[in-house]
Structures are given as structure tokens and as C-alpha cells.
Specification:
about 250 residues, elongated, mainly alpha
């Protein structure tokens, strides 16, 4: 644990403060001359992003452009952030010595009320102390050797495991290809069904009612003689229908 903690903590310090970089390491590698700023982007997305960046006119600012059109460089935080971090850093560097064999356990003796606290043999504690310190120096040394003067242009192309982790097990790719894209394509089918079938049926019913109503409206003339004639004609049609039906049944 001490070895790994010293390794990644030293690496973090080197990358964040001593050797900061604003681009991803694989963007500088020889195998990636076409440019892939992030392994989470496809080549088409990279080319599109580069075209957008070129369209912003990074060569200079026009009069109508503002600083909001371009990203600002990172800068140091204010004292409200630096002072607490400095205090925490000092405590982190010194608190470990309070209960170490180097101080003869004076802190335990100071806070312990009553008889003198029982502590392990000094020889046993020194072994753990020395081994832990050596592991810390080894982890920090390996981190410095790997990352202090690292040439990112010679970085190897990422293997399948690196890409698998960088692409988050391709969960996003599966979602976009298997869920989002299918839903995007299906929306046109749903829109056509709603526009042609649903709206068409509603428009047909409404149009049929309009035609029937317009036809019946023309029959309502207000002439009593016309109504009487239609009644007689209807009665004659019914009599003829019954007569034909009766004659057919008699045979």
C-alpha cells in the first residue's frame, strides 16, 4: 500500500505541477499523427472537432469576437484555496512523526492519562518504519523515473485493454448504436404512422360527417309539399320492397 500510494501520489504531483500538459499523451504519440485527442471519441468525431476548431479562427481575434469563444488557460487558485491546502500539507508531513519511534512516542505519553502506555518493542517498530520508508522512496523513485522526462511521442499504441477501459467497456457505444440510434430511426416510422394512419382516419371520419351533413342539409328545403312527396315516395319504395319479398317467398 505504501509503495502504490507513493507511486501514484508522486505521479500526480509531476503531472499536475512539475510537468503539466494540456493535451492527452496519445495525441502526441507517433502512432496517432492523424490526431485522436481522446480515446473516447471516434475518428469522425475528431475530424469534426478539428474542423470546428479551425472555423473559430484561432489565429487571431476579430473585433466581434470575445474571450468567451476560446478556452482560458488554467491558473492558480486564490488564497482562500491555497492557504487551507498548505495547512493540510504541513499537517500531513508532520503528523506522522508524532507517534513514531523517532520521537520516542512522546505524543502517546502526552495524551495518555494514568500509567505509562504499553508500546511494542522498539526493535519491532523500527523494522516496520524502515521497510515502509524504503517502499515510499522506491515508489516515488519509480514514478519520477517513468514520468519526469517521459517522451510522449514514443508512447506505444494502446492495446485492447487500454481501449476497453478508456471507452468505459463500450457502454456508451452500445447505448448510441443499440438504443439511441434505433430510437432515432424509429421516430420516423412512428411519425409516419401518426401522420398517415391516425391523422388520416380522424380526417376521414370528420370529412365523411361533413359530406353527409352537407347532403342532408340540402334536403331540408322548408317546403311542406316537398316533404310530403318524399314521404309518399318512401312509402311506395317500402311497399314495393315488401311485395317483392313476399312474391319471392311465395314461390
Amino acid at each position: 500500500m505504501a509503495l502504490l500510494t507513493a507511486f501514484y501520489t508522486t505521479r500526480m504531483m509531476i503531472i499536475a505541477f512539475y510537468k503539466p500538459r494540456t493535451v492527452a499523451p496519445w495525441a502526441l504519440a507517433a502512432w496517432n499523427q492523424q490526431g485522436e485527442p481522446t480515446l473516447n471519441m471516434t475518428q469522425a468525431e475528431v475530424l469534426e472537432q478539428r474542423a470546428q476548431d479551425a472555423g473559430h479562427g484561432h489565429g487571431g481575434h476579430g473585433e466581434s469576437e470575445t474571450d468567451d469563444a476560446h478556452p482560458h488557460k488554467p491558473h492558480e487558485s486564490g488564497p482562500e484555496m491555497i492557504i487551507p491546502l498548505v495547512l493540510l500539507g504541513v499537517l500531513a508531513m508532520t503528523m506522522g512523526f508524532l507517534g513514531s519511534p523517532l520521537s520516542n512516542f512522546w505524543f502517546q505519553r502526552f495524551v495518555y492519562f494514568g500509567a505509562t502506555p504499553e508500546v511494542p518493542p522498539l526493535e519491532t517498530l523500527w523494522v516496520g518504519f524502515i521497510v515502509s520508508a524504503l517502499l515510499v522512496f522506491v515508489g516515488a523513485g519509480v514514478s519520477v523515473a517513468l514520468y519526469w522526462n517521459r517522451d510522449h511521442t514514443k508512447q506505444l499504441a494502446p492495446d485492447w485493454l487500454t481501449r476497453l477501459l478508456q471507452r468505459r467497456y463500450f457502454i456508451d457505444d452500445f447505448f448510441y448504436a443499440g438504443v439511441a440510434k434505433i430510437g432515432y430511426d424509429l421516430q420516423f416510422l412512428f411519425a409516419w404512422f401518426d401522420r398517415v394512419v391516425v391523422d388520416g382516419f380522424v380526417d376521414f371520419v370528420g370529412g365523411a360527417v361533413t359530406v353527409i351533413g352537407d347532403t342532408l342539409r340540402r334536403a331540408q328545403t322548408g317546403a311542406v309539399g316537398w316533404y310530403a312527396g318524399l314521404t309518399v315516395a318512401g312509402a311506395i319504395v317500402m311497399v314495393l320492397a315488401f311485395a317483392i319479398a313476399f312474391a319471392g317467398g311465395a314461390r
